[in-house]
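re: that chain from earlier
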Amino acid sequence: MRLFRGLGVALASAAMVLGLAATAHAQGDVKAPGVPEGVYNVNIDGQATTEWEIFPSCVPVVGDLREPLLLPVGCKLKVTPQGQPGAEAVMIGGRWTFDYDTIDGKICPDGSTAPQQTIYSFDPYTWVGSMKVIHGAVCGEQAAMFEVPLTMSFNRPLVIPVDQYPLICEPGGLRRCF
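^ sequence. v structure.
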């Protein structure tokens, strides 16, 4: 009899915890750890401080089909650096990473331009990262790559709040999301 009472208490406790988690998730209170949201000050070594607007969009990743895992692995970020078009950042090797391929990013000594790629990446917890610039053999120069450090700090929340988990996934089974 004690076994059944103990099992009943354990099941009731688990149901309550899951119910609270589902309520918090439905109300948008649950945030994935390491997922930035807001306007950030970005300091890139040797350049003026700029601002990035970051909008996350996540899908609850299904772990063992009992409860969604709210991890950055199911997220993408829309990153809009000041004065540049937006880019989509994804988690690669434990770092948020996005790039820009520009056809006129490298300015040659004669004033002409050439293509270059700029890759940004940063740690989701320390907000420290790097900017890597790569260009081919252009402007009479050899192909080159250089990397400089960057640091980020939270400036302010977004003007319009973002629903980080816009999809609702049904419980159990295959977890179809809509």
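Confidence is low (pLDDT under 50) at residues 3-29.
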